[in-house]
What does this fold into?
Amino acid sequence: EAAREILVDAADRGETRLGVEAMDLLSEYGIPTPEGSVVDTPEDAEEVAESIGGDVVMKIVSPDILHKSDIGGVRVGVPDEEVAATYDDLVQRARTYQPDAHILGVQVQEQLDLDEGVETIVGVNRDPQFGPLVLFGLGGIFVEVLEDTTVRVAPLSEREASEMIDDVQAAPLLRGARGRDPVDESAVVDTIGRLSQLATDFPAILELDVNPLVATDDGAAAVDVRLTID
Ligand code: ADP
Ligand code: MG
It folds into this structure.
């Protein structure tokens, strides 16, 4: 099927790390992703931004740049009139920070409202003994500083996936703390289950990170993905 093809094509090209290409893999598994595409000219960037409508997010696309924001490679809230200049600026930055990086272009993506959403992460790591381990947590400091994450062995039952949400100490933030609307927990559980299935179906997937998976009151969307295959 299409998912297998994406992985086989990458392997044929000798690529072991996938970024934005892996977005299609998520779509194949029924995981929602924001609207958008990868372009390689400022003019095409304008065209995509126009079809998305409103402010957009723009990100450098390079197999050699894994942490895009570390080099200033992510811009949020880009209005129409700044899309072309932002394209040039992102490419310029990447060239400055990493002169040897192979730059494929820029991803122009629909901007999600993070005031309404909560950033979560879902990761998969293949353990030689247990197979794929699935990790869930809230994004940002909850992962990096507080280490508030939970892990299960794939494949997961729906019950196990939903228990993962109960496990994290920051769960109240998903459940309407601070006057927010509670997020659609079933959409988060569903996505955890689908990623667990993806990793189970393809032993070539060594590592998979969706960071962030943005959860809102009416769904969950994978905004950024990184994948390592062997
Ligand atoms: P990287 O992890 O490589 O730095 P991301 O694509 O995760 O790049 O973007 C970094 C951050 O920018 C995200 O964690 C999120 O806060 C914000 N962001 C990225 N894409 C979007 C989007 N489509 N809508 C809203 N915020 C976004
Ligand atoms: Mg990210």
Notes: The first strand starts at residue 17 and ends at 18. Residues 2-32+114-229 form a domain with the D-amino Acid Aminotransferase; Chain A, domain 1 fold (CATH 3.30.470.20). The chain is about 35% helix and 30% strand. The mean pLDDT is 95.
